[in-house]
Each structure stands twice: as C-alpha cells, then as structure tokens.
C-alpha cells in the first residue's frame, strides 16, 4: 500500500495535536506495517523561509517527510489561490501514485488540492479526518462566536453575527462548497462522536463517518508526586496559550483561590506563538497578578513526563467544543486526573467523578470551585486515579486505520 498524508503543518515546526497525531500515525504505519508513501506538510513564511526555485523542502533528514510552501490562503473559503505552488505538487503525487490519500486538515492546502489529487491520482481513495470544525465554521473552526459564546452549529443568522460585513450569499456558497468537495471522500473520520454529530446535524451524510480515536506513542507513566501533607494541590496546564484553550480562565481561577487564602500551585506549560499583542499583554498582566501561577514557556515531547511528575491534576479549561484533545490522553497515560469543561469531546473523554472532574466552561469562579473541591475532598484524587483507563496506543489506532484503508480500497469483503 502506498499512502500520502497531508497536514497543515509539521510537528517539527509546530507541535500541535493534529500534527503530532498525523506524523506519529504515518510513521507507525510505515515502520510496523511496511506502508510506503510520504508525509506532506504545508507551511508559510511564519514557519519556514521560502527557498528559491522550489516550493518543496525537506525536513529533519526524513526522505519521506516534506514541506510545501503555500503562503496564500483564504481562511474563510478554505481556498488556496497559489496555483503555482499547487502545480508543484502534481508531479510528486503522480510519481508516488498513492493508493490512499489521507487529508488531516484542509488549512493551507485548500479545497483546490482535492481536485488536484483527483487528477494526479485518479484511483486513490480519499480519507479525511475532521480534527476540528473548519469545514463547518468560518470562525477559525471553533464553533465559538466572536463574543466568546458557544455556537450550536452554523446558520445564516449566527454566522452573519460573527461576520457582519459579509453578504449572506457567502455563507450559503461556503456551506454548499464544503459539502460538495468533501462528498468526494470515501471516508470521513472524527476522533469523537460529538464531532461526528455536529457534522451530521449540519447536513453531512451520517453513513460517511467513522469515529476513530486518537492514539499515543508508548511511554512510561511519570511517577506521582510525593505529597507529605497529603494535599494534591499542584495543577498543570499543557498546550498552546491562546484565548480558545482557556489559559486566562485558569489564571483567574487561581487568583480567586489565592485571594481566598487557599494554597496551591498552577503551572502553564506551552508556547504562545502567533498571538496578538493584546492577548500577550493580558497574559503577562494576569501572571503578574497571580503569584501562585508560573509560565515556564514551551516544552518538548521528551520533557513531558518530567513536567507531569510535578503536578497532581491536569487542567483543560478550553472554552470551545474541543474535539478530542491529546493532552487528556497524555494526562491519562501518566495517570493524572483531568479537570475540564463538561462539553464536546472533553466530556466524552473525561467521566465526571470517575477519572476526572467537569467544571463550568469559561467560568473562572466555577473552575476555582472545582479546583478547591479537588484539593480538599479526602480520598477524591486516589479514587479518580484508580479509575483512569490507559488511552489507545498509536499501534492500536494504526491497525484500525490500516483496516479502514483496506476496506476503502475494496480489499476487505464481508
């Protein structure tokens, strides 16, 4: 089997959950199952300087992992007008002659790439994983309004409230185009049932969807922190710092706990690249006003076990319908209970009172109350830890993907 993976960035440049999962899956299929192919990541000048003479670049001495420089992109229509850059992909795809093309994100590549693939590899089966809601929501695929409120799904009135300057025809055409282009895909995968249901509610055909969980590379669980006084009062945030992930909510919750005289520690682990000046000013001001919180900055994958060893709880205070955050699986791998919002894929992954706790979304006071309960309820931490189930491994998930690819190719018969 020959396989082509497309992703909107490379984990060597931006270690987001989608990028990490996609590259790990590609390598697992290559190394354990003998699948040949290529991992192609789209980048812009913000990630890697464009080099003269070619739109393609190598990375990390991996002959089957490449970058394609696509610096022009319409985020509203998910359109890539850089026909020159796309044209450079055609001979690469034709020479590879993939049996399966797996698109892990339409960002940067754009919907035009689907048509290019159909022409360059007409016999390839197309698979798409909806890691978020970009095909449904022009507001950065978050299903979150510009005012920070949860959106139940796209509608003309709701979308125009977020984009008051756009004519209604733009939203109608966008929705029709998305359904038309993704109709070409043989399978559409979502890491959560919640995400599948959002797409189906928006008019996408239910029979095309398969819920496919994410998986992690194997790792030895980090030891639990020794707490001489028995208090489990160390909280860790892991992930990119932006307004969607709720780092500011966690800081305000910590400040309120501190004002109430409740001793604890909150550590924010992660970078804040590409954030606005106003967000960074707010972040620094909130950190200065919250002595119980620290922000060491970005971290690498190899550092994660050591950082997990310093915390008792992992806080996932996202304010949007998260699909299936890898950080929750990482927390469970290292046997840390998770405190998260009781919505979307988070509520699907974390069982309230069983292996974690649910907190009100975008509500610092509510989060502070749950954190206080986590610290002060005798036996709660031990109870939750005892009921944490190991997350799926990348090996297990790769086998499921391989079976799905074979089925799409008609190699599996009933």
UniProtKB/TrEMBL annotation:
Highest taxon, organism lineage: Bacteria
GO molecular function term, any single one: glycosyltransferase activity
InterPro entries to which the protein is assigned, alphabetical: Glyco_trans_4-like_N, Glycosyltransferase_grp1
Pfam name, any one: Glyco_transf_4
Domain Glycosyltransferase subfamily 4-like N-terminal: 16-215
Protein name per its UniProtKB record: Glycosyltransferase family 4 protein
């Amino acid at each position: 089997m020959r396989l082509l993976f497309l992703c909107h960035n490379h984990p060597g440049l931006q270690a987001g959950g989608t990028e990490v999962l996609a590259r790990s899956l590609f390598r697992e299929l290559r190394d354990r199952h003998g699948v040949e192919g290529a991992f192609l990541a789209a980048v812009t000048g913000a990630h890697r300087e464009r080099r003269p003479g070619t739109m393609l670049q190598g990375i990390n001495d991996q002959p089957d992992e490449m970058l394609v420089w696509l610096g022009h992109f319409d985020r509203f229509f998910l359109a890539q007008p850089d026909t020159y850059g796309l044209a450079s992909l055609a001979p690469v795809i034709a020479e590879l002659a993939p049996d399966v093309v797996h698109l892990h994100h339409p960002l940067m590549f754009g919907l035009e790439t689907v048509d290019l693939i159909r022409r360059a590899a007409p016999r390839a089966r197309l698979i798409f994983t909806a890691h978020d809601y970009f095909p449904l929501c022009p507001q950065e695929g978050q299903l979150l309004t510009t005012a920070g409120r949860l959106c139940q799904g796209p509608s003309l009135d709701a979308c125009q409230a977020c984009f008051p300057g756009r004519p209604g025809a733009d939203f109608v055409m966008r929705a029709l185009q998305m359904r038309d282009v993704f109709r070409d895909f043989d399978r559409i995968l979502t890491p959560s049932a919640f995400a599948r249901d959002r797409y189906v509610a928006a008019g996408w055909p239910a029979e095309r969807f398969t819920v496919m969980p994410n998986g992690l590379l194997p790792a030895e669980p980090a030891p639990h922190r020794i707490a001489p006084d028995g208090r489990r009062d160390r909280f860790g945030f892991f992930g990119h710092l932006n307004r969607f992930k709720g780092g500011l909510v966690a800081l305000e919750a910590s400040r309120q706990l501190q004002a109430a005289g409740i001793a604890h520690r909150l550590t924010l682990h992660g970078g804040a690249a590409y954030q606005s000046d106003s967000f960074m000013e707010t972040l620094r001001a909130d950190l200065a006003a919250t002595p119980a919180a620290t922000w060491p900055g970005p971290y690498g994958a190899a550092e994660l076990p050591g950082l997990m060893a310093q915390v008792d709880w992992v806080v996932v205070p996202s304010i949007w319908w998260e699909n299936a955050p890898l950080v929750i699986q990482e927390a469970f791998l290292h046997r840390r209970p998770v405190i998260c919002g009781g919505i979307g894929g988070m509520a699907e992954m974390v069982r309230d009172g069983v292996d974690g706790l649910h907190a009100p979304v975008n509500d610092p006071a509510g989060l502070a109350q749950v954190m206080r309960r986590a610290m002060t309820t005798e036996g709660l931490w031990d109870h939750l830890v005892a009921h944490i189930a190991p997350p799926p491994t990348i090996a297990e998930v790769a086998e499921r993907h391989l079976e799905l690819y074979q089925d799409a190719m008609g190699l599996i018969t009933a």
